[in-house]
Amino acid sequence: MLPERTKVSYEEFLRLNQADERLEYWLVHPKSKTVEVNVLNEDGLYEQSGIYKGLDVVFSESFLDLVVDLRDVFA
User: Fold this and answer.
1) Which residue among 10, 15, 43, 75 has the highest number of C-beta atoms inside a 10 angstrom radius?
2) Residue 63 has what DSSP assignment?
3) How far apart are CA 65 and CA 75, in angstroms?
4) 3-class SS at 29?
5) Least confident of 7-11, 29-33, 52-56, 60-64
């Protein structure tokens, strides 16, 4: 997670996450009301595991108890 007032490029964001070996990250796009989930693979690179929208419920691959109903996010 980045501080609210920090501006970084997407490439820098990826580099920071990969360097810290974060298991997954979610990008929330308020305008399109979508959530993009990316997970760290065996090679240490991120791959997209899904793009969710509308009435979808998002499940974390890394934190099994984390479940997010997008109706609550984009209400």
Assistant:
1) 15
2) S
3) 22
4) strand
5) 7-11
Contact predicate 46/67, CB 8 Å: no
Structure token pair of residue 38 = 């990316």
pLDDT digits (tens, 9 = 90+) for 25-48: 999 989 999 999 999 999 988 899
Residues 6+ apart with CB under 8 A from 41: 47
Q: What angle do CA 28, 29, 33 make, to 5 degrees?
A: 105
CB 8 within 8 A of CB 29: no
12, 20 contact by CB (below 8 A): no
